[in-house]
Write a structure and sequence with these properties.
This protein is an alpha+beta fold. The protein has 7 helices and 4 strands; from the N terminus they run ααββααααββα. A hairpin with a 2-residue loop joins strand 1 and strand 2. It binds iron/sulfur cluster.
Length: 151
């Protein structure tokens, strides 16, 4: 929540320190553009669970989870959103309470692709869709192949 010029200065300082001292940093943000700028690896969380994780460019250029896709479409930076701009990702409704997590996939109450399977079964975090890239979605292969979900 810093002023833009101060933010740039802080980010550049962190990057310099990371390089100089060979540091590992955990940077928590809601801004995927900033995450892309500063990180080598991105982990996307929804309601306290990791739903997608992978090398930064893989997550940004080929987001596998609908929540990550919606975050990228909503990104204020056009270079992040342009690949998904032609796709509507209509996330609706309120985020569920962390003290009352929905059954099945915890994103199903807001996911435009949710099916009965999503309402019943919590998808595991799997790494067999794109090498080195983990995702918790029953239909991640369909997104990669551009198929309609569940068909
Ligand atoms: S498992 Fe189903 S509800 Fe969850 S993100 Fe994937 S398509 Fe959406």
């Amino acid at each position: 929540m810093l002023d833009v010029s101060i933010r740039a200065g802080v980010l550049n300082l962190l990057l310099r320190l990371k390089g100089e001292f060979n540091l590992t940093m955990l940077f928590i943000t809601h801004d995927l553009a900033v995450a892309r700028y500063i990180s080598d690896k991105i982990c996307v969380m929804y309601l306290g669970r990791i739903v997608e994780m992978g090398p930064t460019e893989s997550v940004v250029n080929q987001p596998l989870h609908p929540y990550t896709q919606a975050l990228l479409v909503a990104a204020p930076r056009p270079d992040l959103a342009h690949k998904l701009a032609e796709r509507e990702i209509p996330i609706t409704g309120e985020i569920a309470s962390a003290s009352n997590i929905p059954p099945g996939c915890r994103f199903h109450t807001r996911c435009p692709y949710a099916t009965d399977l999503c309402k019943r079964e919590d998808p595991p975090l799997r790494g067999d869709v794109v090498p080195g890239h983990l995702v918790a979605c029953h239909y991640a292969e369909d997104f990669v192949k551009g198929k309609p979900v569940g068909k």
